[in-house]
Amino acid sequence: MSSADSTVTRLIPRHVAVIMDGNGRWAKKRLLPRVMGHKRGLDALEATVKNCQELGVECLTVFAFSTENWRRPADEVGFLMNLFLQSLKKQVKRLHNNNIRLRVIGKRDRFGADIRDGIAEAEALTAGNSGLLLSIAVDYGGHQDIVQAANKAIASGKTELTEADIQAHISLNDVATPDLFIRTGGETRISNFLLWQLAYTELYFTETLWPDFDLAALQAAIDSFGQRERRFGRTSEQLPEHEQRN
Ligand code: IPE
Ligand code: IPE
Ligand code: MG
Fold first, then answer.
1. For residue 193, what are the CA distances in angstroms to 19, 54, 142, 232, 238?
2. Is 146 inside a domain boundary?
3. The model scores a pTM over 0.85
4. What is the reported pLDDT for 245?
5. 97 is a domain residue
């Protein structure tokens, strides 16, 4: 039976977080400009949103642009910002019709007003939807996320911070932390993605370049997740599954 067989029963992670990496190499392999890889990467994102929704994933959080990605050549940064704006405008109705709730996490103050308005409109339009929660991390950094959470806690009058204070203000605090992290493109690092939220997430790395990430690739990641034993510090014998197995 192939891993893409829809009759296979899978343990579906509720929250999947993805570093969509490898667009540039995908393009380079085809002697195309890097930005063509980003364009195809957007198609892969569209497909992944649909696949996650159909598989029953509740939250999908994707890394689209890091606080470090501003260091790229100005024309690539400009292309990515424009692609983000155009896709916000183009896709929002389709996302809304599919009952998807869209949210953008990260800093907003380095965007132009057009992008800020586009985000606000997309979030407002889809806020009441009950299907997949799609969070797009743009100008996002895990360090920056923790610092902004600490600053908000301090502004609310706290002097000595607890984990609960950070948790109360960190991005995505209203949903369960990611169950499964996927990074495409072969690098085995976190690159300043959701540092706080990934503390107990199952990590999965694949050589597949992001534009090639399809349903079978997603299912392979979910199958790997299904093999993991999540102990959260406990022993195997303490887990409820252990009772069922014996
Ligand atoms: C990921 O692909 C997309 C962004 C960071 C915006 P890359 O552009 O990093 O692709 P590679 O890693 O150079 O292949
Ligand atoms: C991480 O990818 C950020 C995104 C996918 C948006 P990078 O390709 O920028 O990561 P590094 O710098 O190689 O670690
Ligand atoms: Mg990269």
1. 8, 26, 5, 21, 31
2. no
3. yes
4. 54
5. yes
